[in-house]
Amino acid sequence: MTKRDYYEVLGVTRDADPAQIKKAYRQAALKFHPDRNPGNKEAEERFKEASEAYEVLSDAQKRQVYDSYGHRGLEGSGFQGFRDVEDIFGSFGDIFEDLFGLGFGGGRGARARGHRARAGADVRAGVSIAFSEAATGVEKEVSVRKEELCDACRGDGAAPGSGREKCRTCGGVGQVTTRQGFFMMQTTCPRCQGEGATIARPCPECRGRGRMIKNRRLNVKVPAGIEDGTHLILRGEGAAGSAGGPAGDLYVEIHIEPHPQFRREGDDTIASLELTMAQAALGTTLTVPTLYGNQTVTIPSGMETGERVRLKGMGMPHIRTQRRGDHYLEVRVRTPKKLSKRQRELMEAFAKES
Fold first, then answer.
1. For the chain, which domains are there?
2. Average pLDDT over residues 210-217
3. How far apart, in Å, are the Cα atoms of 314 and each of 107, 166, 255, 267, 317?
4. pTM of this structure
């Protein structure tokens, strides 16, 4: 059966950001969740379809492959989609726990929940680079303030030499069950917050949290050709996870400082070039600055204000192919404000001749 476009499945545009994609998936999961549609095979298929789309579009690398080559591009990447609903619960249990804080009759959603490792939060930072550094690429140091595992207790939260004990409220399962009419409702244990265990003696360094706020300095490699506002993702450099879960990611937003002479249009760069009336009319040879040093350029005769002279391959490199754009000199013909007696005579003679 032909697969539908993943963006169409989630109802988002191709330029949707991660937050929009996650929101769309949450809505689809809530609508087609099997526990809300018992026995409905069509809803279950729609649920698997939405989950497969989210699995691809929420992963930056898979999304890039899909955007470039479609479903065929994913066939050789090891991605096989989901065989059944249980696979989905295992992959996106954290989302379903957020969606279904209460159990739906103890079905598959309830079995998918429970005490599990959680990934740490993503962290954001910004770094500024010069216009010329965007052309050549550069390595920059970025300062990050984030949660890391406590050195004293190694993230356990218990004081060294002590340990954890089974939660007396939930019996170690992390959830408590209550009955409301015909329904059995499961909620996170209020005593242990779903951990299934409590700390007898909290770590004095982190006060039982297992994590502490620390300042870190990291080196970020900025590729040549990057555009202003682009986010670089450093996997695993975000906040520490809990219960053995992986750390989040670090998103570094790149800010490119303006250049005093050049501006950017895609991969091309533009600079103004002032010419005298004589240079514009007769043509000339000049030495002009570019991102890669001074270049000698021949200006043809008869140039007018607004016309451009092209220097091929002297612009910004394309971030993926590294093929460089062009550099354009945008002509401005300068009219003299004052003329000497001789200049006026020549101009008058030129006017009469014209």
1. 1-113 (1.10.287.110), 118-155+209-258 (2.60.260.20), 262-353 (2.60.260.20)
2. 89
3. 63, 67, 22, 10, 9
4. 0.57
